[in-house]
Amino acid sequence: MEVGAEAGKTGFPPGSPWSGEARALLEKAIARHGGLGAYAAFGIVSFRPRELRGLLSKLKGLGKTFQLPPRIDVAPRDHRAVFHDYPTPGRRGLYSNGKVALLDDNGAMAETHAEIRTTFVGRHKLHRWSPADALYFFGYALTHYCSLPFSLAEGTPAGPLRHARHDGAALTGIDVQLPPTLHTHSTRQTFYFDDEGLLRRHDYVADIVGPWARAAHYSEDYQTVAGLPMARRRHVVARVARWPTPVVALHAELDITTDPAKSGPHAPTAT
C-alpha cells in the first residue's frame, strides 16, 4: 500500500470496509509495526539469506535448477525487488509488481516475462522451477511480506475474528480478501497477531504450487529496521484445514541490513 492522500491519515481508503473489531485489530497491528509515518518513509531493506530449506525448496530445485542469491533488496511500497548475483555471479534478477527480468553480466535484459504467473498451470505446477520461476515466487512473497500489515487496509475483511495459539501465546486472526491485482500466494489469506499487534502467523495457499500447498507461515526473530519490525526467521509448515502439521515446507534464516537508505537505488522496473 502506498500511504498517501487517498488513504488519509488513517491508512484506510475512503469507504473502507474495515470496521468494528476487524478495524481495531488492524489499527493496533499497524501501530505495533511502526505506524504509517515510518512505512510511508520506508525505502529499501536488504536481506542476506543464510539458510533456506524445506520440502518445497527441495521439490522445486534449489541448488539444481536455481540458486539462492546472496543478497535481495526489497522496496515493499513499490512492489519491487533486486536479486543480486542471480542466477549466477555478476548477474541480477528483477521483480517488479508481477513482472520478472534476468539481466546479463553487462546489465542488459537477457530474459523478460511480463505475465509469468499465467504459466503456472497444469503440469507446469509439478515441474522444478527455472531461475525466472523462483524469482517470481520469492519476489512477490518478500515484497508482500514486507508490506504487512499496512497493505491489508486495501483488502476486505472476510468474516469474524479467529483465535489460535502459538508457543503458548494467544493469537487473534482475521481472514482477508486481497485485491485481485496483488501478486501474492492467494487472494484470500488469514493473518494472526499477538496481544501487542505483532504479526506472528500467516495462513495461505500457494496457488502457483498447487491447491494442496496450504501453509501456516510463522514470522519470528524480529529486528527493527528504520522503525519497522522485520522477521529474520520464517518458518512455514504444511497445514490441514486450519491445523498446522510438523511438515516443514520452507524454513528461511535471514540477515537484514539495518539502514535501508544505504542499500542502493530502488529496483529498476522489469519490462
What would you say this structure looks like, in words?
- This protein is an alpha+beta fold.
- The chain contains four helices and 14 strands.
- The protein has helices at 20-32, 35-40, 55-60, 131-147, and strands at residues 45-53, 71-75, 80-84, 92-96, 99-103, 109-113, 156-157, 162-166, 169-177, 188-193, 199-205, 214-225, 228-240, 243-256.
- Strands 1, 2, 3, 4, 5, 6, 7, 8, 9, 10, 11, 12, 13 and 14 form a 14-stranded antiparallel sheet that branches.
- The chain is globular.
- The chain starts with 19 loop residues before the first helix and ends in a 15-residue tail after the last strand.
Oligomer: single chain
- The mean pLDDT is 92
**CATH C-level:** Mainly Beta
Overall CATH architecture: Clam
Assign a percent range to the helix content: 10-25%
Shape: globular
CATH topology-level fold name: outer membrane lipoprotein receptor (LolB), chain A
Task: State the major sheet.
Answer: 14 strands, antiparallel
Structural domain count: 1
Please count the helical segments. 4
Keywords:
271 residues, alpha+beta, outer membrane lipoprotein receptor (LolB), chain A, 14-stranded antiparallel sheet, 4 helices, 15% helix, disordered N terminus
What's the gist of this structure?
With 271 residues, this protein is of the alpha+beta class.
